[in-house]
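INFO batch 0412 | record 1 of 1 | parsing
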Amino acid sequence: MIVELEKQKKENRFNLFLDGEFFSGINLDQIVKYNLKNGLDIDKEKIEEIVLESETFYAFNKVLKYISKSMKTKHELKVYLKDKGFNESVIKNVIEKLEEYNYINDELYCKYYVDTYKNKYGKNKLKQNLKNKNINENIIEKYLDFDEKDSILNIKKEILKQSKNKVLDLKLKQKIYRNLVYKGYSFDEIKKGFEILGEDDENWD
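INFO prediction complete | emitting tokens
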């Protein structure tokens, strides 16, 4: 197959054509490494190997910039790469490389996420958010195993915040209850939070 190269606007990126038809983008590094040039006759299997190497390198560098802003799960990175147009082989190579360097670690991510948001959300919300990120349920359960007292303390603070300078009547209790359920707290936890404040009316929910 006859190679034709065309410079892209992106630095160190070229369009690769084979027999006059666009085949893929390719990095300058691989062009130099494999001495690719216009008019070169090359085996298709060989050029596919070169392009896979090039695209893996290109995608890996894109991901490094992406994860520099915040931690990501394996699932989030797969979706990101797919949305960027990379094929399954490239995505597989990049994920393996990221795992090799410990740049992605779903267990570490789960621990960080729970530590960051456990004072904002209840266990139900935390669990659902982490499941949505395709984190293994055993890992999720491991890091959601924190003391119920922490949740009840957060509920108490939330009740006091939402009822500040207000009469805590049935209507307001119901509104606070709905908000706390949305935040992922269980019925029993919410009930205990109200009871601590001396609000143990069985009809508030």
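INFO post-check: The mean pLDDT is 91.
INFO record closed
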